[in-house]
Design a protein that fits this description.
It contains 12 helices and 3 strands; from the N terminus they run αααααααααααβββα. It is mainly alpha-helical and about 280 residues long. The protein folds into 2 domains: about 140 residues, Ribonuclease iii, N-terminal Endonuclease Domain, Chain A (Orthogonal Bundle); about 80 residues, 2-Layer Sandwich (Double Stranded RNA Binding Domain). A 3-stranded antiparallel β-sheet has the order 1-2-3. A hairpin with a 6-residue loop joins strand 1 and strand 2. Helix 5 crosses helix 6 and helix 7 crosses helix 9. The mean pLDDT is about 85.
Length: about 280
């Protein structure tokens, strides 16, 4: 209890000090704007388990391009930090796998690394760490997250990694990646399993004579070298899952995973309701 009070006072003192003495008027202005809207800088530090030295980096890591219209034009979105963080994340994960799985062949190492850094896992880790609560974005972009879009929160995870690297060096970025990703047994166990969700979904629906899943690209965005695809999967006339990815294949796998999760959950609920009705009779 006492430590929490001290940490909150210390964070508040550092922000006040920064506001008074920083020469970066744009950062000071944005900090004051966020404080007035209830942005909790202390909880943000707690989520990262890190105390930023250069707040500009971390504010930029949280800025989605849809938010630029609401702030000073000298700010830029988190896309450059995302680019850097993506490279650092891939390197840290590759280094970890190389050291800890000496018997694993190159092809399997590549597959495992790809599974650990895919959009679905990064988006889930962002949500588990409540990073999505701190993102600076427009109302429509926030709505897309509520509707299941993964790309914005996954990109923010990578941008945070980039900010940590620039602010605290390789060790700070590596520590965050280990704590949030590589030391999580559920993430590692999931990555070790076969991730062909399209095949799993097809087997699931065919076993129940529900038809064939159909995948359609509903959105393409980003420059040619960094395209983002959004895919919707329907079974019959009903939409069951939406996924995003840097390729159509990745987006389809993400959509299939979400559809499979929804269908299995619905089946579990149905069985539970039937069991309750039977017991009442």
């Amino acid at each position: 209890m006492l430590n929490n009070i001290i940490n909150r006072l210390w964070c508040r003192f550092r922000l006040l000090w920064f506001s008074f003495f920083s020469r970066d008027a744009h950062v000071k202005s944005l900090i004051e704007k966020l404080r007035s809207t209830g942005f909790d800088f202390i909880l943000f530090e707690k989520a990262l388990q890190y105390r930023p030295r250069k707040w500009r980096l971390f504010l930029q890591a949280l800025i989605h391009r849809s938010y630029l219209q609401l702030i000073d034009e000298r700010w830029e979105s988190n896309e450059r930090l995302e680019f850097l963080g993506d490279a650092i994340l891939g390197f840290v994960v590759a280094e970890h796998l190389f050291k800890n799985y000496p018997e694993m062949e190159e092809g399997d190492l590549t597959k495992l690394r790809s599974r650990l850094v895919n959009r679905r896992i990064l988006a889930q880790r962002s949500k588990d760490l409540y990073l999505s609560n701190f993102l600076l974005l427009s109302t429509s972009a926030a709505q897309s997250i509520d509707n299941g879009s993964e790309s914005i929160v996954a990109d923010a995870f990578e941008a945070i990694v980039g900010a940590l690297y620039l602010d605290g060096g390789y060790s700070a970025a590596k520590r965050f990646i280990y704590k949030s990703l590589l030391e999580n047994p559920e993430v590692l166990n999931s990555a070790m399993m076969d991730d062909n969700y399209k095949s799993a979904l097809l087997e699931y629906v065919q076993a129940r004579s529900l038809g064939i899943p159909h995948y359609s690209v509903t959105q393409e965005e980003g420059p040619e070298h960094d395209r983002r695809f959004t895919v919707n999967v329907t079974i019959g006339a009903e939409s069951w899952g939406v996924g995003t990815g840097r390729s159509k294949k990745e987006a389809e796998q993400s959509a299939a995973a979400e559809a499979l999760e929804h269908m299995q959950q619905q089946n579990t609920n149905f069985q539970s309701e039937n069991a309750n009705e039977t017991s009442e009779k």
